[in-house]
Amino acid sequence: RYWSLGPSVPHHQQKMRCVVLFLFALVAASSAAVLELGDGKMDEAKAHPVFVKFYAPWCGHCKKLAPTWDDLADKVEKAGQTGLVSIAKVDCTADGKQTCKDYSVRGFPTLKLLYPIATEDGKVRIAASPVVLRPAAAKPRPPAGSPS
């Protein structure tokens, strides 16, 4: 039921990729189903993988992604796949500030797959995929007073 941190890391990464591809395929094939997670509300990710959108309400790209994210959640729910993966969002400006720091969110929107991992002592912790999608880094500005 849980993935381990042992020598099967490549297999684990393959599973993660399959889940992400499955999610994107659902959107391409054809809202109330979006879970709202945040500080102290991350237990859902200890039960099964959760595909999370970290966002800010004022973010234009986040607003554009919202209908697609809701559609994805509806399709996962209608396909009966909520036991395989849940679709969630975390508002990084409100109840999710610490959660966004914990998962190294540096821009909006950021999409990550969170999944349970059994530790050697039998406990379950939440691990995060490498970033699935985040905004492109802004071009650095030249120092003040330097020629452009």
TrEMBL record:
<feature type="domain" description="Thioredoxin">
    <location>
        <begin position="23"/>
        <end position="148"/>
    </location>
</feature>
<dbReference type="GO" id="GO:0005783">
    <property type="term" value="C:endoplasmic reticulum"/>
</dbReference>
<feature type="signal peptide">
    <location>
        <begin position="1"/>
        <end position="32"/>
    </location>
</feature>
<dbReference type="GO" id="GO:0006457">
    <property type="term" value="P:protein folding"/>
</dbReference>
<dbReference type="InterPro" id="IPR051063">
    <property type="entry name" value="PDI"/>
</dbReference>
<comment type="similarity">
    <text>Belongs to the protein disulfide isomerase family.</text>
</comment>
<dbReference type="GO" id="GO:0003756">
    <property type="term" value="F:protein disulfide isomerase activity"/>
</dbReference>
<keyword id="KW-0732">Signal</keyword>
<dbReference type="InterPro" id="IPR017937">
    <property type="entry name" value="Thioredoxin_CS"/>
</dbReference>
<dbReference type="InterPro" id="IPR036249">
    <property type="entry name" value="Thioredoxin-like_sf"/>
</dbReference>
<protein>
    <recommendedName>
        <fullName>Thioredoxin domain-containing protein</fullName>
    </recommendedName>
</protein>
<dbReference type="Pfam" id="PF00085">
    <property type="entry name" value="Thioredoxin"/>
</dbReference>
<dbReference type="InterPro" id="IPR013766">
    <property type="entry name" value="Thioredoxin_domain"/>
</dbReference>
